[in-house]
């Protein structure tokens, strides 16, 4: 059985960047590497990163590291190019209406006190009201009003006043 508090286990399954294969390279042999053309090098790396690599093993490892850096740079430049093209396509679009006119909205409620207040606040802030909000006969917020922290606090105050009765 694996000890969940073992540091190697924590590194492997923490959800952080990296994976079990990289932890394996720390404690086990690194294995076969490929050259810049993608062909497997006949000499496997028998050392691990914890104990250190010989000069030959280090040089063989550098091929893969360099290839990884180049591949990342190529992917990044492709994403940057796509973003630039998207901006070029939509830069002439201007939104001139403050109300899109939709009658459909998304209902957000604290689900009878089940949703923590912090989550409710994060869910509400930055949205726009689809309808007027009434507490009894009193209108506390109007359609198309941006929801900020002040309005959220007002909602929470009224909600807890109603919940007490």
UniProtKB/TrEMBL annotation:
<feature type="domain" description="RNA polymerase Rpb1">
    <location>
        <begin position="52"/>
        <end position="109"/>
    </location>
</feature>
<dbReference type="InterPro" id="IPR007081">
    <property type="entry name" value="RNA_pol_Rpb1_5"/>
</dbReference>
<dbReference type="GO" id="GO:0046872">
    <property type="term" value="F:metal ion binding"/>
</dbReference>
<feature type="domain" description="RNA polymerase Rpb1">
    <location>
        <begin position="5"/>
        <end position="37"/>
    </location>
</feature>
<dbReference type="InterPro" id="IPR038120">
    <property type="entry name" value="Rpb1_funnel_sf"/>
</dbReference>
<dbReference type="Pfam" id="PF04998">
    <property type="entry name" value="RNA_pol_Rpb1_5"/>
</dbReference>
<keyword id="KW-0808">Transferase</keyword>
<keyword id="KW-0862">Zinc</keyword>
<dbReference type="InterPro" id="IPR007083">
    <property type="entry name" value="RNA_pol_Rpb1_4"/>
</dbReference>
<keyword id="KW-0548">Nucleotidyltransferase</keyword>
<dbReference type="GO" id="GO:0003899">
    <property type="term" value="F:DNA-directed RNA polymerase activity"/>
</dbReference>
<keyword id="KW-0479">Metal-binding</keyword>
<dbReference type="Pfam" id="PF05000">
    <property type="entry name" value="RNA_pol_Rpb1_4"/>
</dbReference>
<protein>
    <recommendedName>
        <fullName>DNA-directed RNA polymerase</fullName>
        <ecNumber>2.7.7.6</ecNumber>
    </recommendedName>
</protein>
<keyword id="KW-0804">Transcription</keyword>
<keyword id="KW-0240">DNA-directed RNA polymerase</keyword>
<dbReference type="GO" id="GO:0000428">
    <property type="term" value="C:DNA-directed RNA polymerase complex"/>
</dbReference>
